[in-house]
Amino acid sequence: MLLWFTDYLATHVSGFGVFQFLTFRTMVGAMTALAISLVVGPTMIRKLAHHQIGQVVRDVGPETHLHKAGTPTMGGALILVSIIAATLLWCDLGNRYVWIVLGVVVAFAAIGWMDDYLKVSEKSSRGLTAGRKFLLQSVAGLVAAVVMFKTAGLPQETALIVPFFKEAALPLGVGFIALTYLMIVFMSNAVNLTDGLDGLATLPTVMVAAALGLIAYLTGHIEFANYLQIPHIPGAGELAVFCGALIGAGLGFLWFNTYPAQVFMGDIGALALGAALGVVAVMVRHEIVLLIMGGLFVVEAVSVIMQVVSFKLTGRRIFRMAPIHHHFELMGWPEPRVIVRLWIITLVLVLVGLSTLKLR
């Protein structure tokens, strides 16, 4: 909205022309979201505590987490408000990618809200049944996938790009819908599973979003895309502003979510953030790179799958507890050590993912 206003002002004062630059709007969007988070955060935490919207700790979880019961949850709403406000203020609202990613964020946030609401109201850690949650996620993911497929105007918008190879672009056709659906739903659940320790999912999400924002800017810029030999996706650069908003909102939330957490994200935040990473990666045609950069999320999700499959088939568990961050806790690692070490691993993976842009 403010982009239109600054466009008008630029006709009278040339200095306002700086808002036409994606890089500037990305930085302003990040700062806007950060400011909203820091200003609104304390009030939201007090409201959540006043209404007794507290975390319900699983009985089967680590005993060291029992003291976290009652900590305000559903704080992911703070991230979402900051992201959506900053995006609407600084993005080009005529860009279809902006509305698709916002639609995905809102849809998955609504699913997360229903899950969190049931947990809080019933004083249980169960929430939505796995089947119902997966069904709702599938509907939202498929709708987004079909919309993206139907509105795609160029072949590269629906081709699978393989990193490390210069001209490895595999036309997917209708298979693009399946890939998009899988990326959105998988990343949504992967980030949600990772969100089990104070700040564990927050900073990796910010780091991956920063890398995706850079990729979005490069794919949307024809000269940079041609130089790096990556697909040029007209209009995708606007997603850099959205990623900037996600960075600012995430850092603002981390201010309150870092160990020991004053507030938890809840499914309302984790499901939405994971879906956002998935859909942005699809839009900029770097799904495989996302799986590399978000390796922490992938491993967390796979550890749960392996644990469940192993127990059902053999009656034995592979890990002491899944997701894998609980395994490290039960090995004797203090929670802050687990968190920071996994943050460091994510930073390395993000750098590896970014290196694929040049190693072709």
Name the average pLDDT.
90
Radius of gyration: 20 Å
For the largest beta sheet, what order do the strands appear in spatially? 1-2
- Biggest β-sheet, characterized? 2 strands, antiparallel
Low-confidence stretches: none
> Quick one: how many beta strands?
2
Number of helices: 14
String of helices and strands: HHHHHEEHHHHHHHHH
Beta-strand residue percentage = under 5%
Strand-pairing-aware structural class: mainly alpha
Helix content: 55-70%
Outline, from the CA principal axes? globular
The tally of structural domains comes to 1
Distance between the termini: 39 Å
Short description:
The chain has 360 residues and is mainly α. The protein is 67% helix and 2% strand.
Describe this structure in words.
It contains 14 helices and two strands. The mean pLDDT is 90. It is an all-alpha fold and 360 residues long. Helices cover 67% and strands 2% of the residues. It has a two-stranded antiparallel sheet with strand order 1-2. It has one domain (20-355). It has helices spanning 2-10, 22-50, 76-90, 96-122, 130-151, 175-194, 202-220, 222-228, 239-257, 266-283, 287-293, 295-314, 324-330, 335-355, and strands at 159-161, 169-171. Helix 2 (22-50) runs antiparallel to helix 3 (76-90), helix 2 (22-50) runs parallel beside helix 9 and helix 4 (96-122) runs antiparallel to helix 10. The relative contact order is 0.15.
